Amino acid sequence: MFVRSAVLCGLLLSSQPVFSAPSVPLSAFVHEDQYSKPRLAPDGKHIAITARVALNDRFVPVVMVYKLPEMKQTGAIRMPLFEVPLDYQWVSPTRLAIAKGREFGSREAPMGTGEVLSAELDGSKSQYLFGYKMFLSSSRGDRYGDDYAYGYIEAVSRKRDGHLFLTSHAWEGNHSLLYDIDSNKATRRLMADLPMPDLEFVLQQDGKPRFASGVDDQSHAVLFRLDDASGRWNKLPGDKVRRYEPFQFSTDGKDFVATYSADGEPDKLVRENLETGKRTVLFEDPVGSFTGAMYGTSAMPFAARSTVGLPRVRYFDENNPDSVLHKQLSAQFPGQYLHFIDVTDDKNLILFSVRSDRDPGSYYLFDRTAMKADMLFSAMESIDPEQMAERRPISLKARDGLALHGFLTMPAHAKDAKVPLVVLPHGGPHGIYDAWFFEEDAQFLASRGYAVLQLNFRGSGGRGVDFLEAGYRQWAGKMIDDLVDATRWAIAQGEVDGARVCSYGASYGGYAAMMLAAREPDLYKCAVGYVGAYDLKLLAKPSNNRHDTVRASFYRKYVGDDREELTRNSPIAQAARIKSPVLLVHGGNDKITPVEHAESMRAALIAAGRPPEWFLAPNEGHGFYDTANRTAFYEKLEAFLGKHIGTAAAH
Prior knowledge:
The chain is α+β, with helices and mostly antiparallel strands. It has a domain at about 390-645: 3-Layer(aba) Sandwich (Rossmann fold), CATH 3.40.50. Helices cover about 15% and strands about 35% of the residues. An 8-stranded mixed β-sheet has the order 29-30-32-31-33-34-35-36, with helices on both faces. Strand 35 (about 580-585), helix 11 and strand 36 form a beta-alpha-beta unit. It is globular. It starts with a strand and ends in a 6-residue tail after the last helix.
């Protein structure tokens, strides 16, 4: 840690050599980060970091606390066996609140349990604040009893007095509760109780709740606002604008910022006066929604960027001190995106990250007084950015004239050589979108000599409500058309080999990979489905659980509820049209797309006389977690692609 430091006015990073393409070991892509999630204490005297520590034959995450500036370890907060810290926040200069998860095995991703605890930075004076083990685990359990609910930290007190604000979602019932919890004493005070489940609260800087948002049983967005005069939470009409989501208040509580889209256009960032309702647009873009709101020494953001293309910071006020400093620091990291994470209360220390399309990212601590930035650690430290590939923003027109955007990751190759292409649709699909930043699958495939095409087809996020809804009930229709159009566009540019194209994706991406192979059997020479959805009828099974009810209502929007249409638009019904080789990869413990999807797809392909290659990891869920399983998957993927569309890696 603290690998390098430099004075601001000097050159922080050495210039990068011309990209070459040496072999990059697979282990670099699947290696687990030793350090992650840095959080700077509000007084700047300590920093908390998750470190993976060896315990017997496994590595477990521990919250390590280091004293600044010397980075001397002063404490460690360990969980009981199989319990892990999922996230944490400083509630005072010496105390942390931690959201807890549980590991169900070394080969399964940890899951949040809805429990929250707190401890001093040296691990002492631990308190169990919320959760289903409240009665057994806390001295205050006799007062509150067990919490049959999922809790998460909504915010922390700006007074730095050890208080936090926690939202409670009952396992059963229809209420959302907001508590003010004293993390030192484990006492709580009810602040809000709304008769609707799964709401999220937006608080003013003084800790007063003002908005609550969520979705109803029909998956329609709802927004409540607290009326001071009556003390009632009033539901705001949802038919005036397409999207309106307040999320942050100014220090004095008079203004707030919100996501805003009046007619379905890309989301703007607006500043609104709480009393008068007057709005000022801080950020808007005709193509992409705003994202990456950045905070500095003020409670309100000073910059943001667009979801489309290269991530260029737009400052709301070029002369704002935070804007000036951000520009100065960014100048020392050409070609990278610099993001402020934490700022101390005295404004002297800033924790920031830098990352790019080739660099997974590094974390730095900047001292304003010394005008010096020290590097703490890097993500995926085995990755050498100089060996990674460029991710080019692309734009094209779909067959119906709709403008589409995405990225083409190109491997190193001889000037006149045409490389094989992997079309990589993202999962989701609605609301999810591909961005320019480092992407493991794309870089792994590029390191093996493949060009990688990622398209934000209609239905993706980042372009506004209209673009999102343009994908409703188009999973097998215009969304696939967009991907085919983008594939033909990429081939027409002259750098990829149109005779060597494969489709590969996860979740919806796995669905799309199969549908592409069925729709255009002569274009796609192979297909890979990873934790894919292949039988649309399985997506919306009826259930008494509200979460499943809401999910089912979303799926009715996405794919409809006509069983004949669902069958017709499912890859299992198109298996006879797939002529190319197929690799199916799935987790046996997948709760999002249960293994029944993959088993049905496999059976359909066998019945069609095209038995697929098969890889089932029994303990994995919706995406592999265990390093050994991820390694085995990438090895199978590399061998499969090499066999069916060849390789073009330059070594």
